[in-house]
Amino acid sequence: MISSSTNIMSHSQTDRLLLWSLGFFALVAGGLLLLVISFLFGEAWPALHHLGLTRFFSDPDWYPTEGSYRLTAMVGGTMLATVGSVLLAAPLGILSALFCHFYAPPLLSRWYHRMIELLAGVPSVVFGFWGLVVLIPIIGRWHPPGPSLLAGILILTLMILPTIMLVAHASIALVPVAYIQNATALGFRRWSLIRYVILPTTKFGLLTGILLGTARALGETMAVLMVCGNVVQLPSHLFDPIRTLTANIALEMAYALGNHRSALFVSGILLMGLVILLVCMADGLRHRKIYADTK
Questions:
Q1: d(CA 218, CA 213)
Q2: Does 123 sit behind a cis peptide bond, omega within 30 degrees of 0 on the bond before it?
Q3: CA–CA distance from 167 to each of 95, 200, 216, 230, 266 (Å)?
Q4: How do residues 248-289 score in pLDDT, each as one tens digit?
Q5: Smallest Cα–Cα separation from 184: which of 170, 203, 198?
Q6: Phi and psi dihedrals of 229, rounded to 5?
Q7: End-to-end CA distance of the chain
Q8: What does the pLDDT look like over 8-56, one tens digit per residue?
Q9: What is the value of pTM for the model shown?
Q10: With contact defined as beta carbons under 8 Å apart, do 268 and 190 qualify?
């Protein structure tokens, strides 16, 4: 009896210690995020105070040495490259996951899945180097100069495809077997099963994967810096060079001073705001899924 009581007390102390440890690490993680946000706003405050937020969208262009700090072209380039890559990668990733689950032989499905996992681990600079050596010369022969919005879209597509595919694959794997068995018993063919059972059941997971891929595309730096041409302009077509917000920060932070340096931190705040918006959307989708499952 004494031994049983001692074991219960020991387990209670262990659980309490684990609870405090997890709470501490969660507090550290949240504190680090707040520190990063505080640092960004602290460094950006001189530009926001002396220039005002409207200057970043109303100035003639981005000429920091002449006191012009317009970010519109870089925001537009970032959004165009991100949206273009998501429009390509989302259907490719979802269709790849469906192929692995419902069409590919087991051996091919396993190898294909391993290849996608390997692609997810390739460093971004390797993608950029491949694009610089292989992709840009191909585009340049088709439509000079080569470094362009199109090159950025294609590189970002390769980079976010594994994220979307792996999340879609995991979402499809979580579909209850009973759903598939019932649909098969009702005479559903393979495509009918996918269209009327799998896709509606996994829609929140698929959207979450797309949002995570979008967040990665927004934050990518090295690859787009190497293949997009880094010209500050709003592109008129796919073959125009562009500069993204991340590439602008990487290129100019080393020598920026004063308001110029603070303006680069304003770019960082814009990027973080976009990523936080995407995270909130993904969290909202997750809560909607939980609510739908409990109804």
A1: 9
A2: no
A3: 12, 15, 14, 32, 32
A4: 999 998 888 888 999 999 999 988 888 888 878 777 766 665
A5: 198
A6: 95, -25
A7: 45
A8: 555 677 778 888 888 888 899 888 988 988 998 989 999 888 888 888 8
A9: 0.85
A10: no
